[in-house]
Amino acid sequence: FDCLLLLDCSDEQRLGILCDDFLMTKRKKIDSFNIDHHVSNTRFAKYNFVQECSANCMHICELIEYMGAPIDKLTAEYLLTGLLTDSGNFSHNDVTEETMLLAAKLLKLPYFPAKRTGEAMIINYIWPYVRPKTTTDTNGLRKKPAKLASMYFIL
What we know:
It is a single chain. The chain is an alpha/beta fold. The chain contains 4 helices and 8 strands; from the N terminus they run βαββαααβββββ. The strands form 3 sheets. It has a 3-stranded parallel beta sheet with strand order 1-2-3, with helices on one face. A 3-stranded antiparallel beta sheet has the order 4-5-8, with no helix packed on it. Residues 115-134 and 144-155 have low confidence and may be disordered.
């Protein structure tokens, strides 16, 4: 291969079985690119773009936008899934207005079924991928999370 693109990986050990491929790129002087959002990133690739944010998909969206590439349905689904999972379903401390605006921007794409009700956009597409956190009842017993039916964005 001509180059190695590493996404959402803060150090060599997190590469797992790809670590050997990465070490080969270093020996053969093949370019490696690391795009990541973790503060703990060791900047181990030849070229590193590391900037803290709630989800690495935010960087990928920036890159796609910069290149002027269109976002097709599958790409939009992957970006939304990455945004949700990397941000802990928008529950991590580093979730910002930019995170939510990117989710809203992606959900405005024509691929997602949505129904407008006043200022609220009700999305029934994304929640099947989201699992609410388990909670405890008054006796301290774990309750199974209820499946949520829709998601609201105020636009």
